[in-house]
Amino acid sequence: MAERLELRNLVIESDTPSTSSPLTPNVTSSPKTQIKVLGLLLAAISSLFFSLSTLIVKWLNNMDPLELAAIRFVGILIPSVPILIYNKQDPFPKGQRLLLLLRAFAGATSVSLIFYAVRHMPLADASVIVFSVPVIVAIFARIFLKEPCGLFHYFTLFLTMVGVLLITRPPFLFGQSTKQYNFLGPLAALLSTLFGAIVYILLRALKNLHFSVIMVTFSTYSIIQTTSMAWATGDLCWPKCGTERILVVALGVFSFSGQMLLTIAAQLEEAGLVAIARTVDVVFAFVWQIIFFNEVPNIFSIIGAVLVTSSVVLIGLRKWMMSMPSTSNFRKKFGFLFL
């Protein structure tokens, strides 16, 4: 879930995508229109690993979310360092240091908030809210990067906002008692999407850097931030039993595995289709919530999840069709996506 923010931008739209960035695979002048099943399969498997990571965070309720976030960052740093060394990259290049630190701060804060939200909300609800990041990114891209933002973007934003309201169900709209409502979980999830969107925008500014530089800087800073905060609050501790230690190790392994599979998937298939394939993340979240926590989602959560997921799917379709020739019949048939 949170790991999707650490790689390339899968859904930010641009009519002139970069073809030389080390963050993205090279493309030819003839856009791809043939779907590669392997790429979509790897994207779906990466979602499985990401959802398992979130499940572990929810399950280990006696460990501080900040400590779990730090462990996850260690799982990212260890394999990233050899890649950095092999490619002979400067881990902290001049002229990019401020942006790298801002990206690291935004990423670490987003992940920490996601883990906190997962701890204080139903697993599926938190996952769906975080999954709405691509829609927020489109708005941020319009504000900060001056990218076009038309009727389509406002429509997907509207769907997402309605979906999030149905999931969070604020008392002033649903007539609930404020004393029984936990504001912290939904607030953390919403803030995490904002910081996550900022990460995407900063990645656009850092697109000429090798991904290992970004990953090493990000994970190193994030370990310092999360461990310092956990230590300051007095919640930094080692897992108590063998099962917890195994799950902690699994958290790092699943995070890195999902991340690498997502990288390969994005190299094999169009970014829009990869984003669509990753919507199974929401399905996994609902399944784990029912199986492991015996929490059956209500009708509001289900409708909200459908609305948010639909927004992401529409954005993915638009991104995919932007890679097609302007004369494509399929692109013409779905021309309303370009409004």
Description of the structure:
- It is a single chain.
- Residues 1-33 have low confidence and may be disordered.
- The protein starts with 36 loop residues before the first helix and ends in a 6-residue tail after the last helix.
- The protein is mostly helical.
- It has helices spanning 37-59, 65-86, 97-120, 123-131, 133-144, 151-168, 171-174, 184-205, 211-232, 242-268, 271-277, 280-293, 299-322, 329-333.
Question: What attributes does this structure have?
Answer:
0% strand, mainly alpha, disordered N terminus, globular, single chain, 339 residues
List the helices and strands and how they pair.
Blueprint: H1 37-59, H2 65-86, H3 97-120, H4 123-131, H5 133-144, H6 151-168, H7 171-174, H8 184-205, H9 211-232, H10 242-268, H11 271-277, H12 280-293, H13 299-322, H14 329-333
Helix pairs in contact: 1-10, 1-11, 1-12, 2-3, 2-9, 2-10, 3-4, 3-8, 3-9, 4-8, 4-12, 4-13, 5-6, 5-8, 6-13, 11-13
